[in-house]
User: What shape does this take?
Amino acid sequence: MNMYSYYFLTLAVLLRCFAYTQSVSHPGKCRLVFRSDEVQVICVSVNFKQLPSKAFPGNTTDLSVRFSNLSSITSDDLKILSHLRQLSLIRNQLRTLPADLLLGLSNLHVLDLTGNKLTALSSQVFHHSPLVELTLSDNLLSEIDADCLPVNNSLQRLDLSSNKFSQLPVAFLQRLNNLESLDLKNNQLEELTPGALTSLPKLEALYLENNRLKSLEASAFTGNPNLRQMFLSGNRLENLPAGIFLKQDELVFLDLRNNYLQNLTPGILDGRLYAVLSGNPWHCNSSLAYLWHWLRMNEKQKFHDDKITCQTPEHMKGRNITEIAATDLGIKD
Ligand SMILES: *[C@@H]1O[C@H](CO)[C@@H](O)[C@H](O)[C@H]1NC(C)=O
Ligand SMILES: *[C@@H]1O[C@H](CO)[C@@H](O)[C@H](O)[C@H]1NC(C)=O
Ligand SMILES: *[C@@H]1O[C@H](CO)[C@@H](O)[C@H](O)[C@H]1NC(C)=O
Ligand SMILES: *[C@@H]1O[C@H](CO)[C@@H](O)[C@H](O)[C@H]1NC(C)=O
Ligand SMILES: *[C@@H]1O[C@H](CO)[C@@H](O)[C@H](O)[C@H]1NC(C)=O
Assistant: This one.
C-alpha cells in the first residue's frame, strides 16, 4: 500500500466515525452524512411508526428510511424537509399516500417507494415535485390514475415492476413524454394496449419480462424510435409480426428468452447487435432459414451460454441450430 492510499483510507475511516457520532437523537441506527452540497440521513431497520422529521437536520437533501415499519406518512412529516432531493422509503408498510404528500418539496427529484403495500394512488399525489425518477416496484398496484402526475412532468425513469398490472395504465403513460426508461417486469400483462406506448418518443429501455404477453402488434413500438434495449423474456410470445422493430434504428439489445417462439419472421433481427434467444421451442425445418443464417452471421453477437436448440421435429430435438448443416434443414447454404 503506498502512502497516498493509506492516507485516503485513514481519512475515510475518520469521516465514517464522524458520520456515526452525528447520529440523530432517535434510538436506532440512523446515520448522518454531511458533504459539501448534501446532507444524507440513512435509517435502516429502525422501528419507526411515524417519521421523526424534527430530529433530522432541516437541510437534509437525501432521506432514506428502509426496512422500517412506517404505516402512514403525511405532508406535515415531510414539509419541514424542504431541501429534500431524494426520498426513499423502501420496505415499509405504507398502504396509501395523501394527495398533498409532496407539497412544498420543490427540489425532490427521486422518490423510491419499493416494497410497500400501495394498492392505489391518490389523484395529484406526485404533482408538487419535479420528479425525474419514480420507483413503485413491489407494491400491489393494478392501475394508476392519469392525474397522479401533472401534464408537463419531467419524469425520465419509472419503475412499476412487481405489481399487479394486467393492463398498461394508458392514460398515465400518455403524460410521460420525457420518459427514457419504463420498467413493467413481473406483472400480469397479457397484451400491450394499442397506442399505449406511442407518446414515449424518448424511451430507451423497456422492461417487459415475466408477463403473459402472447402477441404484439406490428405497430406496438412505432412511437419509440429511440429504444436501445428491450426485455421481453419470460412471456408467451409465439411470433413477432413483420416490421415490429422497423423504426428502432438504435435497438442494440433484444432479450427474447423463454417465450414460445418456434420461428422468427424474416427481417426481425436485421441490424440488431445483440439478441438472446434461448428457451424457445424452435421448429427446425426449412422455414427456419432466416434464424439459421442470422445466427451464423452473428456468431459473436449472441451470448455464449445462449442455448438455441431445436425442440421439434422429433429427429432434430436438442440440436444446436448453429451446428445444423444447411442440407439437414433443407436449405441452400
Ligand atoms: C446543513 O446544516 C448544517 C448545520 O446547520 C451545516 O453545518 C451544513 O453546512 C449544512 N449543509 C448544507 C449542504 O447546507
Ligand atoms: C416491524 O414490526 C414487526 C411486527 O411488529 C416487528 O416484528 C419488526 O421487528 C419491526 N421492524 C423493525 C425494523 O423494527
Ligand atoms: C408544457 O410545457 C411547454 C414547454 O415548456 C409549454 O409550452 C406548455 O404550455 C406546457 N403545457 C402545460 C399544459 O402546462
Ligand atoms: C415448417 O414447419 C411449420 C410448422 O409445422 C410449417 O407451418 C411450415 O409450413 C414448415 N415449412 C415448410 C417449408 O414446410
Ligand atoms: C452451438 O454451436 C456453436 C458453433 O459450433 C458453438 O459455438 C456453441 O457453443 C454451441 N452452443 C451450445 C449450447 O452447444
User: Anything to note?
Assistant: Confidence is low (pLDDT under 50) at residues 1-27.
